[in-house]
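To: structure subgroup
Subject: Chain for Friday's discussion

All,

I'm putting the inputs and outputs inline so they're searchable in the archive.
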Amino acid sequence: MKIGKMTFWAVAPVIAVLSLICTEVAVTPAYSAQEPIVYPSKGQGADQMEKDKYDCYQWSRQQTGFDPMQQPVAQTSAPQQKGGVLKGAAGGALLGAAVGAIAGDAGTGAAIGATSGGIIGGARRHQSSKAQEQRSQQEQAGYEQQRSQYDRAWGACMEGRGYTVR
C-alpha cells in the first residue's frame, strides 16, 4: 500500500512509536490533591496556625505512615515487550521461509510467516501495554486511599485544635 512517496512498511514503525508514546502519557498517573481550606475558629493568629498545621502534619504522618510531601514512586515496573509487530514479523518470516522451503515455496511461506508473526507480536505488545495500564491504575488507587486516610487524620487534628477545615 502506497502512502504518498513512502510505503506502509516505512511508515509503520513511526506509527508504532507514536502509539506507544500516547499510551504511556495516557496511563501515567496524575498524583495531585487540593489543599484544604483552614479557618481559625477561635481567633488563632497566622503564626499559631502555621505551627498547628505542621504539628498536625507530623502527627498525621506518624498515624497513617503516609507523607504527602514525598513524591509518589511507581512500585512495579514491568519489562517492556521489545519489538512487537516487527520482531514477530521477522521471526515469522524466517520460520515461514524454512517451512516453505521444505514444501517447495519459500517465498510464500515467508510471507505467511511474516504476517502471522506480526499479528502475534502485535497482540503480545498490546497485552503488555494493558498489564502496565492495570498496574498504574492499582498504584493510583493505593495512593489515593493513603492520601485520603492522611487527609482525614490531618483534618481531625486541626479540628481538635479549634479550626474549621473544608
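Points worth raising on Friday:
Residues 20-31 have pLDDT under 50 and may be disordered.
The two ends are 60 Å apart (CA to CA).

D.
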